[in-house]
Amino acid sequence: MSLVSEHPSQDSSYELLSSTRVDTLLLSLGWNNDRTGPSSFMLLPYHLDRLRDAAEQHGWTHAQHALTYNAIKSTCEAALADHDDQNQVISFKVTSCSR
Amino acid sequence: MLSLIFIHFRLSIFHPKIRITLTKSGVLSASITPASNFITDPTSATFFNPISDNPLLFGTVLTVYVDFQPTPASLFTSTKTTHRTVYNDARLRAGLSLTPASFAASDVLLYNPQNLITETSIFNVAFYRSLQWVTPPASTGCLPGVLRRWLLEQGRIQEDKDEILTKDSIREGDWVLLFNGVQGCRLGRIAKSSSES
Known about the structure:
The complex is a heterodimer. Chain A is an alpha+beta fold. In chain B, strand 2 and strand 3 form a beta hairpin. The longest helix of chain B is centred in the middle third of the chain and has 9 residues. The chains are: A alpha+beta, B alpha/beta. At the A-B interface, strand 1, helix 1, helix 2, helix 3 and strand 2 of A face strand 1, strand 2, strand 3, helix 1 and helix 4 of B.
């Protein structure tokens, strides 16, 4: 493949990207399991591989070392937890008396 | 007797898209945006047979326009980055905006200077040829997406080793299988290019 050179390694204004999703339905699909079993993150091990390959192609050696499955999964889980904290807005407390 | 009933309403979106980014210095981050939930296996659209099946079984059909300028292969097409100029430019050429509503309804099919089909602005693609879904090889410059890899491993799609997926081979009304790591597999249909109308 002939690639157009855009000197990416000298431009730090961009980041490598991978987009996945979380969905409880994925817990029931065996093909989406990771090495620990059912996962609600879609094909997360493949995202790790893709980011590793991309870091290599961009010559980002330092970034490559940051990439482990535990790191990527915990980053996703932390983002989800932050999101949930920000959105747990309504909590009703209903009290009733029965005699 | 006093009984307490606690009811929790969580307003969070339970099926969000997660955008993972990696900086050159090795900082991993993830951000959350809303997405609609899956109601079936997100890969089931690979079983759609355009000759016999009702496409509406597989959700909303996207309208796909064919670009009219080639997009050269580069590190920014063969790897996924936040630098998305070529994809945004292709959408704008097709008269498509960059709003979520536009992305949900329509897309643009890119090709390279060798006139080989590559991908759309957010999906890998496959076309139904000789009773199978055929996808452009990575040598075209398309992004080797995560779901594309899985579909190849499962034999649901085949790589176009014979370069049959040229721009000129694409016809109005062709069905196109669209797939990425967020939405799974979707169906699209080639529309008359806005530049030709």
